[in-house]
Every structure is written in structure tokens, then in C-alpha cells.
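[#protein-structures] MJ: dropping Class I SAM-dependent methyltransferase here for a structure pass
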Amino acid sequence: MTAEGILALARSAGVGADTRVLDVCCGTGGAGRHLVRTLGCSYHGVDADAEAVASARHHAVGLSSTYAVHTVPPLPVGEADVDVVLLLETVLAFPDKHALASAVAVALRPGGRFACTLEEGTPLTPVEREAMPAADTVWPVPLAEFVSTLADVGLATVSVQDDTASHLRVATALLTQFTAARDRIEAALGATFTDDLLASHRLWRDWMASGRIRKFALVSEREPIDGVLEVAD
Ligand SMILES: C[S@@+](CC[C@H](N)C(=O)[O-])C[C@H]1O[C@@H](n2cnc3c(N)ncnc32)[C@H](O)[C@@H]1O
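AK: finished. C-alpha cells for Class I SAM-dependent methyltransferase:
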């Protein structure tokens, strides 16, 4: 994602200085730091990878943000504790989108928002799975199916934006940089890692360029519990 894309998505979810943000699958936390510095929100990031969490903490010294190692689902908060749940670049890692959406809905207060990027498309074919490294973490979903899954758990989608073009630019730039730095990456991390890194970025570039996969930015809002609206006297 671009820095502008991250900010635009957070702003359309209403993130501001008084917002409690939970960043699910935060990785090394770059997007979260950008939001805390720019919008001044309160921020908690979680990720299953302890090394990523340690790196996120290390780079966030002096910022009002906290981190924890945690595997989702469930989300690591009490019921209705959060204003905005963020999930960037990782919906594809969850084979069971319903379990993911239910966990998000439980964590959000009524009126709270779920902001995510979505890897959109039909499931990978056996040939595509064979070509994609770590294919067990790649589960694209058609847009209408995902929106319907969110609706089933009380998350009404309020905004959908096709951001494929900007993601394609980022993937293409990364592929160019990784290819140029191939020897150094291989010396540090090994040939298998480097081959997989290049192969996956090549596939994402090709799939986004051909329309096989599209990338969306989505914002959904948690509806009142049991559909009961509070009516003023
Ligand atoms: C592609 S990275 C995205 C990181 C970050 N959101 C970003 O946009 O830079 C995916 C991250 O999701 C984490 N992850 C994948 N499945 C997870 C799960 N079930 N629970 C928690 N973290 C998970 C991985 O450890 C990894 O750090």
C-alpha cells in the first residue's frame, strides 16, 4: 500500500485523535506508526509473529502505541472495546472469512468501523496454487461474497474503493528493487527465500495487471446489537 492509501482508508473509517484503533496482523507496524504520527489516534497492534512484534515495538519508541503477540481469531480485546479495527494486506491469509468477520464484529463497539484491504478474486486454481509460494496463506475472495459475509455478522459495508492501480505500482516497484538487490538478499537470507520473494511479487504484479486479482479498500460499520436502534424520547 502507499502511505497515502493507508491514510485515506483510516480517514474514511473516521480515525482521529480520539479513536481507539486495533491493528490486526500489524506486521512490523509501519502503517500503524504512520497513523499514530499523522492522526494522533491511540493504537494497539497485534501479530502472530513474535519477531515482527519485537521490531514494531523497537521502531515505535516514543509513540503512544502498544503491541502484543497474538493469533487471530479471536481478537485480543473485550467485547465492544474498539472504535476501529484495521486489517491491512492480510484478509487473504484467512481461509475462513466468516470466523474472521465474527471476531471483528465482537470487538467493535456499535457504530465502530472495520477498515481493511481486500485481495479480491475467485479462489486460486490448482495450477495457480502450485506457482504461488506459501499458497496456504493465499485465499482471495470475490467482493460480493466478502461483503455478504460481513453483513451476516452485522457489519454493513459503507465504502468500497478499487485501489488495484496503486497496489500494482507498489508491487512493480518492489519487484524491480528486489531483482536489483537479488545477490545481497540471497547472501543474507538464502536462495529459497529469494526465489520465493521474487516469484510471489511477479505473480501479484501479473495478476493485478491482468485483473485476475483486484485490491479494494473497504470500510464496514458495526450495526446496533440485535438490530435494535436507540430512540430518543
Ligand atoms: C502481509 S503482512 C501485513 C502486515 C501489515 N498489516 C502491513 O500492512 O504492513 C501479514 C502479517 O499477518 C500476520 N498474520 C497472518 N495470519 C495471522 C493470524 N491468524 N493472526 C495474527 N497475525 C497473522 C503475519 O505474521 C504477517 O506479519
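MJ: nice. Strands lie at 20-24, 42-47, 65-69, 82-87, 108-120, 155-162, 214-222.
AK: one more thing. Residues 3-164+212-222 form a domain with the Rossmann fold fold (CATH 3.40.50.150).
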